[in-house]
Design goal:
By secondary structure, the chain is an all-alpha fold. It has one domain (2-135). It has helices spanning 2-40, 42-50, 55-92, 100-126, 130-135.
Length: 137
């Protein structure tokens, strides 16, 4: 029993390590996508700022975009994971159940990743000077 529980702990730690690396890579990808989005939309940001857009409004816009991107990715991941899990279980003849708390936790981590890695690009966008932003091409 002790050997079996030790093996289960080892597998659980391995899964946590893999999930952590995946979240880090996904977060860096989200940050890069959002930085490119900010760079491509510099004139739009400049126009919004010149017309009275507040820094927090622009920051909120880009944070919302990062959250939508992460939630969409999280939903696709959950759907793919559930589908794959059920398919493998059906093919192997296993009885399996999927915990709704695990799905909620996965989506919560997706939201946290969006907030954490989306904040820098959103902050960068909100700090753009309207004059400098309108000069860029």
């Amino acid at each position: 029993m002790e050997a079996q529980q030790g093996a289960i702990r080892t597998v659980a730690l391995l899964l946590v390590a893999i999930a952590s690396v995946s979240l880090l890579v996904g977060g860096i990808s989200i940050m890069n996508v959002m930085i490119v989005s900010v760079t491509e939309r510099t004139r739009e940001i400049g126009i919004r700022r010149a017309l009275g857009g507040r820094m927090r409004d622009i920051r909120l816009q880009f944070l919302c975009e990062a959250l939508v991107l992460c939630l969409l990715g999280g939903a696709i991941g959950v759907l793919g994971g559930v589908t794959l899990s059920m398919t493998v279980a059906r093919m192997a003849g296993w009885i399996t159940s999927i915990d709704s708390e695990a799905i909620a936790l996965a989506l919560a981590f997706s939201i946290a990743t969006g907030l954490l890695f989306g904040f820098y690009p959103a902050h960068k966008a909100s700090k753009l000077s309207p004059i400098e932003a309108l000069k860029t091409e």
